[in-house]
Amino acid sequence: MWPLYALLVITVVLSVERTITLIILWRKHEPVIKAQVEKPLSILDLIAMIAPVLGFLGTVTGMITAFKSVSEASSVQLQVVAAGLYEALFTTAFGLVISILATIASFTLDLAIGALCEKEES
């Protein structure tokens, strides 16, 4: 989960930083080089691709934990399996949520950059 938390923090910080930067550039009415403003958005795209994979890795480790506890238990009870399944499902969902947030932020910021650079060209 820690790598997923780190990706979430990076997504939020980068999204807020880019939003503030775009607002400042929009207010200054100075020429904007699209490539420079767009460059950090590739990090959001990378996060959108990596987060689900890390979530699925959590699924695999959770399933391993669940099956290990089943193999070590003398009698199989729901509580023995439930902890591993919870870990598996939670990390998957969290990875997907991070991916969705990064994708939406990247798309929205890309639209804003496009509009800002269009305004500067006209």
Automatic annotation (TrEMBL):
Subcellular location: Cell membrane
Keyword list, A-Z: Cell membrane, Membrane, Transmembrane, Transmembrane helix
UniProt lineage: unclassified sequences, metagenomes, ecological metagenomes
This protein's name: MotA/TolQ/ExbB proton channel domain-containing protein
Pfam families: MotA_ExbB
MotA/TolQ/ExbB proton channel domain sequence ranges: 34-110
Membrane topology per record: Multi-pass membrane protein
Biological process annotations from GO: protein import
Species of origin: bioreactor metagenome
Keyword DNA damage: no
A GO cellular component entry from the record: plasma membrane
Transmembrane regions listed in the UniProt entry: 6-26, 46-68, 88-117
Entry keyword Cell membrane: yes
Family: Belongs to the ExbB/TolQ family.
